[in-house]
Design a protein that fits this description.
Blueprint (H helix, E strand, L loop, with lengths): L7 E12 L2 E15 L5 E10 L1 H22 L3 H12 L5
Antiparallel strand pairs: 1-2, 2-3
Length: 94
């Protein structure tokens, strides 16, 4: 990763963190950069982490709503639309 003096990044990686008294699914973006000494040799690594849990979950929710809206719009008859609504009230999406 940083051994070849290049930066690297991991986006939206999942991690289970113990906080608020329970294990919580969280998402983070990691950025790794090499640190050079005065002679230009690798002397270490800088890792910057940003939590992106709200962004990842928001994108997931929007994708679900977009899919549901598309399915409802594609229903060609009132019976199909009504059946779709009943399916949703039972917790299904098909």
């Amino acid at each position: 990763m940083c051994l070849d003096r290049r930066s690297d990044m991991g986006r939206g990686l999942v991690a289970l963190l113990e906080r608020r008294g329970f294990a919580e699914e969280t998402y983070h973006t990691f950025s790794y950069s090499p640190l050079a000494d005065d002679a230009g040799r690798n002397a270490g690594m800088l890792c910057v982490v940003a939590e992106v849990t709200e962004k990842v979950i928001g994108e997931r929710q929007l994708a679900t709503l977009r899919d549901l809206g598309s399915r409802l719009a594609a229903a060609s008859t009132r019976a199909e639309r009504d059946g779709f609504g009943r399916s949703l009230s039972r917790g299904g999406t098909s």
